[in-house]
Amino acid sequence: MRVYRKGLKRDGSAPCLLHGYGSYGLSMPDDFNSTRFSLLDRGVIYAIAHIRGGSELGRTWYDDGKMLKKLNTFNDFIAAADFLVSEKVCSRDRLAIQGGSAGGLLIAVVVNFRPDLCKAALLQVPFVDALTTMSDASLPLTVQEYRQWGNPNIKAEYDYMRKYCPYTNLKKANYPSMLLMTSLNDSQVLFHEPTKYVAKLRTLRTDSNPFLLRCNMDAGHGGASGRYDNLKEEAFEMAFILDQIGVAK
Predict the structure, then answer these.
(1) Is the pLDDT of residue 208 over 90?
(2) What beta strand segments (E) does 51-174 contain?
(3) Share of the chain above pLDDT 90, in %
(4) How confident is the model at residue 33 (pLDDT cuts 50, 70, 90)?
(5) Closest Cα partner for 21 from 148, 199, 139?
(6) Is 249 within the bounds of a domain?
(7) How many domains is the chain built from?
(8) What's the domain range around 61?
(9) Which of 38, 125, 187, 235 counts the highest number of beta carbons within 10 A?
(10) Is residue 103's pLDDT more than 70?
(11) How far apart are alpha carbons 181 and 196 in whole angstroms?
């Protein structure tokens, strides 16, 4: 796990944003991102969880986070969040978590498994109905991704996917504050996935925390295009996170 911060007291008082992905063998690089300064300058700790399903520790790290080992991805992220709390880097009521696309699936699974894990969750173009989507072979991405998630036509793989599919496993519980971002023209994660996820969860969640869905009517899977539109969209997302983890405006 990589942590970015300006000073660290380790008294649990700092707000923190934990980001993760953990799929397709993609590593989360420790790269420069100017927009993080808006968080760091407000005292927010920014952490990246290098979880299985990525390739931060080589091919085995990827293989141990896909198919019938996919649960490792989610358990690793939960362990990273618990570590931040146990080491008094932050407290649960000042912790936010974030992921997009397959990382959105990660965050949705995590809040199903551990609704108490954090204060707020940001899900960007999230792949939240994996079981239904992977059962539709007519979709252009489905068949080629059998080697990532599994083939629901094979019982053992169907049963395994059913254990974690976010939409399938929604339940009555107190969930964290949540913001889901989607795009009308997304060809990779169709907008109906987060839309029906939100509709179902609104009938189940037993809390009164903010629970928002925002659909960009012009964008695709990457969100708003163009430098300024993209920055405005990211500012909206970070404003939600900062508000929920108690950072002064």
Answers:
(1) yes
(2) 95-100, 120-124
(3) 75
(4) confident
(5) 148
(6) no
(7) 1
(8) 2-244
(9) 125
(10) yes
(11) 13
- For residue 191, give the DSSP letter: T
Q: Which residues are catalytic?
A: 101, 186, 221
The helix (run of H) or strand (run of E) holding residue 4 is strand 2-4
Residue 203 CB neighbours (<10 A): 8
Tokens 């007519």 belong to 138
Sheet of strand 16-19, all strands in order from the earlier edge strand to the far edge: 2-4, 45-48, 16-19, 95-100, 120-124, 177-183, 211-216
How many whole angstroms separate alpha carbon 96 and alpha carbon 21? 15
Which residues contact residue 131 at a Cβ distance below 8 angstroms, ignoring those fewer than 6 apart? 152, 158, 161, 162, 165, 167, 168
* CATH number of the domain residue 96 falls in: 3.40.50.1820
pLDDT band at 150 (very low <50, low <70, confident <90, very high): very high
pLDDT for residue 77: 98
Integer CA distances (angstroms), 187 to 139, 140, 179, in order: 10, 9, 21
